[in-house]
Amino acid sequence: MGVVSVRRSDRLIDMTRYFLERPHTLVTLSFFAERYDSAKSSISEDMAIIKRTFANRGTGILETIPGAAGGALFIPTIQKQEAKEIINDLIQQLSTADRILPGGYLYMSDLLSNPVVLRKVGRLIASEYAHQKVDAIMTVETKGIPIAQSVADYLGVPFIIVRHDSKITEGSTISVNYVSGTSAQIKKMELSKRSLQAGTRVLVVDDYMKGGGTLKGMQALIGEFDAELIGTTVFALGNSEGQRMSDDVTSLLNVDANTDAIRIQPGNYLTKVFE
Length: 275
Prior knowledge:
By secondary structure, the protein is of the alpha/beta class. The protein has helices at residues 8-21, 29-36, 40-57, 80-94, 115-128, 144-155, 213-224, 269-274; strands at 27-28, 60-65, 71-76, 100-101, 105-106, 136-140, 159-162, 173-179, 186-192, 201-209, 228-238, 250-257, 262-266.
């Protein structure tokens, strides 16, 4: 955009879009002043309007940074009532008998390929870690990939895919063996050496957890890179007969599925985030 004076209404729309597309990214007053050929005092007033609107509508927090090089960054959050409505809607959509799969699993592919649902789920998960430093999102090559990508979008960080079989394009890798929580089989997962730096703060995200073996494997892989696990969140937590291999997991939903019935309840997300 050239240096052209812009009306306030147009500025507000463009600034709002700019913040929404770049969460957790500091945008300076100088940048907007040059972008719209406007005084910094006017830009500061615009930011105050956007900040108030975001707060009132539950969109998130526009955190302002004072000083000569100051500006603002947008932190997406969600209010408790909206979070409850989203979770209840997910429960309603999943609570049909035809979704039960062998082994106590649940068919969720249609929901987890819906961009509207993915945006809501990504925002829910990102909100739990809105005020923590997150450097990367990690998931395994399953249906958790689109969820991880959505969370990464809201946190403004890259996402990393752990694979069971390395690709030649990955270069050299680090691998770990882990025990599947459902089949008790020893499996392998690996990650390119270039994917993580020591000290990286990693959030693990997955679609479904039963025994927790896969999550335990990702935690071990994070340790091999001397990175730091800051949290683990799953879309749905299934019922498990034995002791889970991974503890302290946040779940949006709890699923109790057997051969002829299904029961879905809210997970511990609402309690962990809002209480």
